[in-house]
């Protein structure tokens, strides 16, 4: 049992998996922020286009 516990303590493969998981989580959060910003800008653009089209139709 002691030998098994020493083997587990020296095994760092789990730590590497956790590190990769954290990196992926940070990338995912950055992507969410980027997509959200892009979506807000796209909505603003289409609102502007819609207002301009409505104003042009009233002339």
What descriptive keywords fit this protein?
59 residues; mainly alpha; 2 helices; Flp family type IVb pilin; transmembrane; transmembrane helix; Flp_Fap
Q: Can you offer a commentary on this structure?
A:
The chain is mainly alpha-helical and 59 residues long. 92% of the residues lie in helices and 0% in strands. The protein contains 2 helices and no strands. The longest helix has 45 residues, at 13-57. It is rod-shaped. It starts with a helix and ends with a helix. 0% of the residues are buried. The mean pLDDT is 87.
In short:
With 59 residues, this protein is mainly α. It has helices at residues 2-10, 13-57. Keywords: Membrane, Transmembrane, Transmembrane helix.
Alpha-carbon Rg, integer: 26 Å
Note the run of SSEs as H and E: HH
Shape summary? rod-shaped
Total beta-strand segments? 0
Mean pLDDT: 87
Tell me the β content: under 5%
Oligomeric composition of the shown chains: single chain
Helix content: over 70%
Measured between the Cα atoms of the first and last residue, the distance is 86 Å
Largest sheet: none
Number of helices: 2
Low-confidence stretches: none
Structure classification: mainly alpha
